[in-house]
Q: What sequence folds into this?
């Protein structure tokens, strides 16, 4: 009896409820949880499992893709219209003023047009970023820590790395995703983020140049403006200033009626280019600000949702590293070379 009592102390029998017996999707090992946990992390492979997520239905994917294709076609046609319309409207006027100015304008136009179109095509038609392929689901193949902080994408039915995000418009996971841009019909991610920034730089430079040249050419072909009523005014006060402003607007409007088709195209190019450069400049500044802070737009939203507990390292080194010139530039600046900050997304 003493031996049986002593031997019973070496064994413990307990019951495990089905709710607490969970299989890790990453390595296939069965995990015993002390209590029900909607989100837990495997101690072997490091994969994170969220039991509250149901497999969603990817509805209206075709509609979002059709919308993106329409945006791309409209934007590409507009770019071609600005290039062709600018050539047709500006070149005769510029060459009539100065042959040298016409040659310089031709060279700059070709450079800006080629840069803008090529950057647009690279950002629109290049893959935004494919997450790395990893082994998962089987314990012998998955080593310890191989899926550290990986989650399971229920849209793609495969592992999703911590740096990846699923885009419901593209229907796939994108590595280092910044945002989905409908105007290029593609996500902005690890593979085309630089091309997207280059497209913004080229587009802003092109719109500034188009606005300057269209205004310059329009002033040379604008019909004479009659300011006869303003010449007879004496003195200056608020009432006279208001009347003068109205007279100037009416004088330009009456002269604009006599504009030729070339003049109307120049006016449209000036208004549209100024409007575009304002919006593109704001977007470019926002993108560079996030790169300077070392994060993406989605990372910025995530940090706001988490209450801003994560402190990002702001440094110009992030911008240099983003454009791939960390070594060649940093060796000339000791302060940048000694910095150990990284561009994290």
A:
């Amino acid at each position: 009896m003493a031996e049986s009592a002593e031997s019973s102390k070496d064994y413990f029998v307990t019951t495990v409820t089905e709710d607490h017996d969970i299989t890790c999707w990453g390595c296939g090992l069965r995990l015993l949880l002390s209590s029900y946990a909607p989100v837990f992390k495997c101690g072997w492979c490091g994969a994170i499992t969220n039991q509250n997520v149901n497999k969603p239905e990817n509805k209206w994917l075709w509609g979002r893709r059709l919308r993106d294709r329409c945006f791309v076609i409209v934007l590409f046609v507009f770019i071609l219209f600005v290039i062709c319309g600018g050539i047709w409207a500006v070149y005769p006027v510029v060459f009539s003023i100065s042959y040298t100015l016409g040659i310089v304008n031709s060279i700059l136009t070709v450079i800006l047009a080629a840069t803008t179109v090529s950057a647009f095509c690279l950002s629109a038609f290049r893959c935004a970023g494919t997450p790395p392929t990893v082994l998962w689901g089987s314990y012998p193949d998955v080593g310890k820590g191989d899926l550290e902080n990986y989650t399971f994408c229920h849209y793609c039915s495969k592992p999703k790395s911590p740096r990846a995000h699923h885009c419901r418009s593209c229907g796939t996971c994108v590595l280092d995703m910044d945002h989905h841009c409908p105007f290029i019909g593609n996500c902005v991610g690890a593979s085309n983020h630089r091309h997207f920034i280059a497209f913004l730089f080229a587009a802003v430079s092109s719109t500034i140049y188009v606005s300057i040249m269209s205004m310059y050419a329009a002033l040379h072909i604008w019909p004479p403006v009659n300011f006869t009523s303003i010449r007879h005014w004496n003195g200056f006060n608020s009432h006279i200033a208001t009347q003068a402003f109205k007279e100037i607007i009416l004088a330009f409007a009456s002269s604009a009626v006599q504009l030729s088709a070339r003049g109307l195209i120049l006016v449209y190019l000036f208004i549209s280019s100024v409007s575009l450069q304002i919006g593109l400049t704001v977007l470019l500044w926002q993108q560079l600000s996030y790169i300077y802070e070392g994060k993406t737009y989605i990372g910025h939203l995530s940090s706001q949702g988490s209450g801003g507990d994560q402190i990002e390292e702001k440094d110009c080194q992030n911008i240099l590293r983003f454009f791939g010139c960390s070594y060649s530039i940093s060796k000339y600046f000791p302060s940048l070379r000694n910095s150990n900050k990284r561009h994290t997304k």
